């Protein structure tokens, strides 16, 4: 038996000789099969920091063009730290979860202010930066500084669950703690960059969620999974809640009215002004978008121009609004469609 397994609170772990074999096979495989990614070519601490923020909840293929644009606009940490928040949010448009952009901006400012512009290598210090949790701290320490630190994201949790035939839900505090221990048990004494990259890449390319490619897997010999597709186990899902959002299409000549959002989650972004109730008259535009465990239906209605603008409202020229304003994806789509459609309100 390769593993010390008990389907209870007991620790799962790898025997040291098995762990060494897994590490060696993973490293050999990664050196042959690992993808070339822009942040892997020159893994400067700043490039790694940016890529890790972008990759949270977003796929590699989506991130690559954003990463390249970002590094062109903000080639150094100091460039990012001193940029206006509106420019940062604008460049992030389309990646979603804008709190990541705001936290990345604040993290750059914190590094300039508290660490003399040098991103720390110690995960404990990394975790003091806004938006950097246990996973990101371990990943940045591994990728940027080659430290042997554990980092468990969804890909790595899946690989470890299957390797150890781990039967506890990984999204419970105890399950997550046990998976983290497995990650630590598998760590090499040095060379964290290669090890963590290989583990993550295996999860992305071979040990995928559906139809894992076990026959091509470099560590199949040491894998204890009996029904890999059933792993990792998860707790019950939160039910999806349907929500309605109504917003106003208000135009004045060639201008359109937007309202800037406040608060932690969406602060700084511009939207079509919200309506408390569904407007009267026809729906000009409708779309459905997901938001955490919600499914939101956004409907846009024509509305009369207000006599006095709200505190956070501003007129934008329709020809430049898409270039000037950072907008959530659904509102950007609405504007694109309505500006193009030659809506009667605009004529
Ligand atoms: S053998 Fe299959 S289940 Fe096990 S680690 Fe490899 S791909 Fe995943």
What's this, in brief?
This protein is α+β, with helices and mostly antiparallel strands and 347 residues long. Helices cover 42% and strands 14% of the residues.
CATH class of the largest domain: Mainly Alpha
Could you give the order of strands across the largest sheet? 7-3-9-8
Distance between the termini: 75 Å
The CATH architecture classification of the largest domain is Orthogonal Bundle
Q: What is the structural class?
A: alpha+beta
User: What ranges have pLDDT less than 50 throughout 5 or more consecutive residues?
Assistant: 1-9
Along the chain, the helix and strand elements come as: EEHHHHHHHHHHHHEEEEEEEEHH
Mean pLDDT: 92
Q: What is the β-strand count?
A: 10
Task: Name the ligand types.
Answer: iron/sulfur cluster
> Any idea how many domains?
2
Gross morphology is: globular
Alpha plus pi helix count: 14
**Percent in strands:** 5-15%
Radius of gyration: 24 Å
* CATH H-level superfamily of the largest domain: Hypothetical protein, domain 2
Helix and strand topology:
Elements: E1 3-4, E2 13-14, H1 16-33, H2 38-41, H3 45-55, H4 60-73, H5 77-81, H6 85-92, H7 99-114, H8 123-126, H9 134-145, H10 154-163, H11 173-186, H12 192-205, E3 241-249, E4 251-252, E5 255-260, E6 270-271, E7 274-275, E8 283-291, E9 294-302, E10 313-317, H13 321-324, H14 329-340
Parallel strand pairs: 3-9
Antiparallel strand pairs: 1-2, 3-7, 4-5, 5-6, 5-10, 8-9
The chain binds iron/sulfur cluster.
